[in-house]
Design a protein that fits this description.
alpha/beta, four-stranded antiparallel β-sheet, 10 strands, 255 residues, globular, 9 helices, binds adenosine-5'-triphosphate, Rossmann fold
Length: 255
């Protein structure tokens, strides 16, 4: 399998001294759907944010398509970020803007530039935005304000927004943590479509093992900033579950 991301001995120590990643080495392969699990505070978000350089790694290296991106800056960093889509637990839409404008903002990869360009997109870009809303099944909501939509619909807008970038890599940080079980599946399904139909490699932080088993091709578990499990989702045994989540943990299912 071809490597998309190669992470070597990544350490992240926050300015307050918290040692969030303690030498993480990980390869992410093109086309895979990799889930990251682990207790709250184990370093899942920190890892995603180091990959797209929202956080500065303290040491170690990150390579993307064979290129060292650990310390790139300026236009090189902006270009790099354009190839990476990001989905957050709380959607990160601009609430007072329309669904359509939120999706269009993905075309630029930067909201700042966007504000000055509202209404100035060529027809082809608008068509692509509508098409992306179609893909996530909410084209008819295009003209509504983003905050008029339900949580699941807002997350689908966020997915349509990242589709504007044609990202090579999608980083999803607990994309369904604020949603009910049925809605969770309706969002996961679109991440699956991005993965399978649009060839986008997905890395997804998840809390529910049943979702991990259903949607991912591989899973890693973090505990206190270190990788403690790497394997196929269906191979997570009771023993591994307890070593990841602690002796007293009990698996909760999402239907
Ligand atoms: N900006 C920050 N400054 C200082 N410490 C931080 C910062 N962000 C995270 N941390 C700390 O780093 C560690 C890892 O946090 P992180 O958010 O990566 O965990 P997580 O696995 O995503 O947890 P959760 O499941 O709750 O989202 C925690 O101890 C956390 O308190
Ligand atoms: Mg987190």
């Amino acid at each position: 399998m071809e490597k998309l991301v190669h992470i070597s001995n990544l350490q992240k120590i926050y300015p307050n001294g918290t040692h969030a990643l303690k030498g993480v080495s990980l390869d992410i392969y093109k086309g895979e759907f990799l889930s990251i699990i682990g207790l709250s505070g184990s370093g899942k978000s920190t890892l995603l944010r180091c990959i797209n350089r929202l956080h500065e790694p303290t040491s170690g290296t990150i390579e993307f398509s064979g290129k060292d991106v650990t310390h790139i800056s300026g236009s090189e960093l902006r270009q790099y970020r354009k190839s990476i889509g990001m989905i957050f637990q709380h959607f990160n839409l601009i609430k007072r803007m329309s669904v359509m404008d939120n999706v269009l903002s993905g075309h630029l990869g930067s909201i700042g530039t966007f504000a000055s360009l509202v209404g100035k997109f060529p027809g082809s870009v608008k068509e692509k935005a509508l098409n992306n809303l179609d893909i996530v099944g909410i084209r008819e909501k295009a003209d509504l304000r983003a905050d008029a939509l339900s949580g699941g619909q807002q997350q689908r807008v966020a997915i349509a927004r990242t589709l504007m970038q044609n990202p090579e890599l999608l980083l999803a940080d607990e994309p369904v943590a604020s949603l009910d079980p049925a809605t969770s599946h309706s969002v996961m399904k679109y991440l699956e479509i991005m993965n399978k139909q649009h060839g986008c490699t997905v890395v997804c932080n998840l809390h529910f093992l049943s979702l991990v088993r259903q949607y991912s091709t591989r899973v890693i578990a973090l505990r206190a900033g270190e990788i403690v499990y790497e394997g196929k989702p269906q191979d997570i045994t009771e023993e591994w579950f307890k070593s990841i989540y602690g002796e007293d943990a009990v698996e909760v299912e999402i239907e």
